[in-house]
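HUMAN: Can I see a protein plus its fold?

ASSISTANT:
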Amino acid sequence: MSARRAARFALVLAAAAGLAALGGWAAWRLYASVGGRASATPIARVARGDVTFTVTGLGQLQGGSPEVIAAPMAGGEMRIKSLRLPGELVRPGDVVVEFDTAEQEYQLKEAESDLAEAEQQVAKATADKDAQREENRFSLLQAQGDVRLAELEVRKNPLQSAISARQNELALQAARDRLAEIQNDLANRGASSEAAIATQVAARGKAQMQAAMSRHNIELMTVRARGEGYVSIRQNTTGSWFMSGVALPLFRVGDRLSPGMAVADIPDLKNWEATVAIDELDRGHLAPGQKVDIRVVALPFRAFHGSFKHFGGTFESWGEHRFECVMSVDDPAPELRPGMTAEVVVTTDILKNALWVPAQAIFESDGRTFVYVPSGSGFAPRDVKLVRRSETQAVVTGLAANQAVALSSPEQQTKKAAGRSGALEALPR
């Protein structure tokens, strides 16, 4: 029995030793995974080849030279009666927006009423002229008859007394004066009648013009599209909508606005443009007419091309200065829509047969530009001349092809490894 117990005890000791060894191996693996890996510095090789430098930017698509849909210059404040939805397709002649015509219809009724009254006044003035003409003709005939009678009486003068003869001569002179007076009055009366008619005709013309203008204003209250495109509704800048950090609402049915205010745009879908924000550091590498490659996010499998048209001013976005540039889309597709996000890539230069390293391998300190190269069991800095640098590549001189360089600072990696090793040492044992 004692031999069996001794054998069992030895077996238990062996199992305990095996478990301890397994635990020690696991602890070493944990240390290696935390400390050893942390101290490893990633490297890359110096390559020789053609290096392409590009400028990229994000922006939005829009139609070129959009058609502006604005409230007509007719009257005072007006109200939107109907309005197309944002992004809705319209064709030439389609109604885009309608404004309430109550005020214009009231003005039309007033103008038509004035016109009817003016027509009556013209008719009355014409009738008065005709009546006056008949009256004048009767007065003239009567005066002419009186003159003829007076002349007949004067012919009897040789047979009558001197007194009667004198009376006849005076009567003839009076008849002739009366005839001359009537003849003069006829011209004045005719001119007065013509003037009265002209006045009423002018009033009628004014009423006709006002009625025609009211009808035209009513027609203007319905704004139609001149070309084909997708409606882009503008923000309503009237009133006191503005609040910091809050976007202005779009125009909608029922909103009131002043004459001439733009309500919507219809971009020209035959002349697409992309508006892109570019970092101001890249401005010197760009010029009007320069070719660009365009990728529309919503159409990832389609490639588009274009060229720069013009450049705008700079603006600040999230602490970075950028400038706005507009470029044409030379090969648009029917699937394009205003507002789609577009990524623009511009090839600014190609350096042939150049030595280059990844951009993150370049370090700068105290006016030096250097890389880290393997030296012994670690890395050592080596000065290089930076020829040109992009977001991903850096063309350099002072290195040989296939030379290994560090992609991160070995000193930082060593500090991180030391910190993690200290943390392992602080673990309770």
Observations:
- Helices lie at 2-39, 102-155, 162-220, 410-425.
- Residues 172 and 292 are 108 Å apart (CA to CA).
- The mean pLDDT is 81.
- The first helix runs from residue 2 to 39.
